[in-house]
Amino acid sequence: MKAITVRQPGGPDELVLSDVADPSAEPGQVRIAVTAAGVNRADILQRQGFYPPPRGASDIIGLEVSGIVDAVGPGTTTTLRPGDPVVALLAGGGYAELVVTPVGQCAPVPQGLDLVQAGGIMETAATVVSNFAHIHVHAGETILIHGGAGGIGSFAIPYAKHLGLRVISTVGSAPKAEHARTLGADLAVDYHGDWADEVRQATAGKGVDAILDIIGARYLDANVSLLARGGRMTVIGLQGGTKATLDLNRLLTKAATITATSLRFRPLEEKTAIVRTVADEVWPLFESGAIPLPPLTAFPLAEAGAAHELLESGRNIGKIVLVVRS
Predict the structure, then answer these.
(1) Of 93, 106, 233, 305, which alpha carbon lies 20 to 30 A from 18's?
(2) What is the CA radius of gyration of the chain?
(3) Domain tally for the chain?
(4) How far is residue 28's CA from residue 10's CA, in Å, rounded to a whole number?
């Protein structure tokens, strides 16, 4: 089969279209003929050599796909059959014509979506839903969502509004601010300025109840300063580095909580439960139009390097997918 491989850790030009062996579905797995694969920030880190896959997972990049079930592993108990359209959460292997994944990490395609549209919805939805549950957000609270115009933000903002939260989001430009407001953000602030002070003023000095952070180290001090008493922050990305100094006294006096999660390294049972929750609770929101699909930019599989360049540039709004087959 054709797949994108990494010649050596480095830039987007290290991504090449290669011939590799077809994977085989083992017991408990299905094999999917991939239609589209979502492109995520974690993919960039893996390409750079900073985010190796879990033990036993494919070293091919890609954490989510849409496609058609191609084969079912021997002895696998499932209602899925060859020919069924699915979306899937992966630990790796998505940038390829074929991929195998545990059957519990597959879900039906939301009604009304084609397979290309569906290629970039699972990882984002699963990340946001599981982390909102992890920090126990609830109606009436204020949440700060960093990166409101990207793949995560384009889902997290309308989903938070659906849950009854007030949403403040950081963005990188005026068009991205408009996009965030269109999605329902009550306030969109440009992170090139003193965004923390704007958030502080918008909350009358109280701060925010929850933070969904994709940046990491660079924003740690400012994020902690913005947490209200009893506030909770979950770190889901490390675009701004991995190490920073934490003022524990400030955290202590606020009785605040900081946590960090990686969807990719969760046990199979947790991933299965998350995928089921997404299919049961989020897919109807897409189907009814209660939550809009994010804007979509598509590249052919062979142009994975160009897709990575766009994501790294910060110019993209919404989600990027690689189209493997029509």
Answers:
(1) 106
(2) 19
(3) 2
(4) 35
Nearest to 180 by CA among 293, 315, 317: 317
φ/ψ of residue 141, rounded to 5: -85, 165
CA–CA separation, 70 and 53 (whole Å)? 24
Domain of 284? 2-121+264-323
Contacts of 113-116 with CB under 8 Å at 24 or more apart are 113/286, 113/293, 115/35, 115/36, 115/66, 115/67, 115/68, 115/85, 116/35, 116/36, 116/66, 116/296, 116/298, 116/321, 116/323
Total-model pTM: 0.96
Task: Out of 239, 261, 283, pick the residue that ends a domain.
Answer: 261
Q: DSSP characters for 287-305?
A: HHTSSPPPPEEEEEGGGHH
Amino acid at 12: P
Mean pLDDT by 10 residues, the chain (326 residues): 98 98 97 98 96 94 98 95 98 98 98 97 98 98 97 97 98 97 98 97 98 97 98 96 94 97 95 98 97 96 98 95 94
Question: How many angstroms separate the CA atoms of 260 and 232, rounded?
Answer: 11
186 and 304 together in one domain: no
Instruction: Say if residue 256 is in the same domain as residue 270.
Output: no
95: nearest Cα among 52, 43, 26, 48? 43
> Which pair of structure tokens corresponds to residue 304?
């994975």
